[in-house]
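Follow-up to my post from last week.
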Amino acid sequence: MRHEIRSEFRKLRTTRTVWGLLGAVAALTGLGAWGVLAGSDAEFAGASLDGLPVFLVATTVVAALAVVAGVRAYTDEVRYGSIVPTLVSTPDRRRVVAAKVLVIGAAAAIFGLVAVGVGAGVSLVWFAVHGVEVTVGAAALAALGAKMMLLGAAWSAIGVGVGLVVGHQVAALVGSLLYVLVIEDLIGAFAGGVAKYLPGGAADAVVGLAPGGMTVLAPVAGAMLIAAWGAVSVVAGDRRLQRRDIA
Amino acid sequence: MTTMTTTGPDRPVDATGSPAIVVRGLTKRFGAVTAVDDLSFEVRPGWVTGFLGPNGAGKSTTLRMLLGLVTPDAGSAAVLGLPYRSLAAPAEAVGALLEVQSFNPLRSGRNHLRVLAAASGLSDARVDEVLTQVGLTEAASRKAGGYSLGMRQRLGLASALLGDPRVLILDEPANGLDPQGIRWLREFLREFAGLGGAVLVSSHLLSEMAQMADEVIVIDRGRLIRQGAVAEVTAGGRSRLRVASPDRRALERALIDAGFDPRSDGEGFLLSAATADRVGRVAMQAGVPISELAKQEDTLEDAFFEMTDGGER
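User reply:
Got it. Predicted complex:
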């Protein structure tokens, strides 16, 4: 596995794709955080930084861009034809899948960390500008960072699986982004009882930020659930790749 | 295999040892189309084996089955005695070039090779070696998306050579190469085979294959038509006579009267099953002047067209 991981890491490092995604995470989280604070009527004085709705934006941004990174792991290779030398070099396809999950997962975990850092930083600037005193719990913020890293990794694993199952890049990207940004909210609106078991519901449970008073699972249960969603997606993707003809 | 220059054709005298590639009853259907149909052949070490067939004959699908990219519906394909996906160190066993474009265009040529080298546990120093070998060192730091067709082929060849393999499987490698590049490829493959390597190289360009290969496998519509040495395959065809006259119509009439079936070929005619002696006599008796009378050896191309119904669909 060492070789495959090294190869996947080089794939990531030798184009700017992942940097672009990381930049998007930072920019969208920063803008989103500012917008949330500026548009909110809530009284933030004395609030704890890690509990701010700012991080709801961050969870969505991390989810969307981690899924994109995951989907692209396989579908970029199909699009450019590099899947042929990849699978000729490593005929054991399971290793290729595992290496992609690990390497893209690590990158997406960094997305999560950056989102928390940018979200916290922008909030602090906003509060400073507006002269609002808030509590900065370093330990709580670090815990949020760790949770968001887990979410980034899990969402990217879901993306890797979706990319492998769907194969077609545009279809996989559009489908998975629609799901993250729209479809899951719709399911929540029509079948609220189910929503907490879906990946997005599980992600909200992990960070303990329920949008609109939605009921969520306990954080640990949420973490296990979204990890399970990631695992299911990867296993399905692996099974599909095992049978796929690279013609 | 470490230099680009070769000392000319080095045809193997005998091919000993077990075959490098063994294909048995290989069959693949895509929906209603049978792309490869009960195909069997062997490729020997020390030989350059040409894999010939019209476009759509099933060459690429066969090579993909050999490399474990496509799963056959029936039959087996083994490289060095094992199915490709069971090889312990595939890059050291087989070097493959399948498509002209098989890299992320935003990655440099060198980085593309480094990605593959890492996957096979090979060093970056080896990457620079193969870049030198294919003459791509100067362009190695540029994004591969900007490469010309010939440079893309060279990059593909470099990736095939990375693991210093014993078998080369190349799909249309001459495609896009300039005449110098084709000559280099030919000499390179000769040397590779001369050192005991096995080469399976596909092409639909017959003239190229006639110069490159020791042996050819001809397939059409997914089926094996013929496997044999280039000389054998061409010897199976008939030799023909080309005859021309300033008085083209008189010549044609005389030939038809004498029982020939003249086929128009530019200014003159092509005759099968004819001897120069007899045609000369016919022309003299009819009083038709002859401006050309030459025996035409059947080329691989002729043999190929005869075998594959003119390659038409």
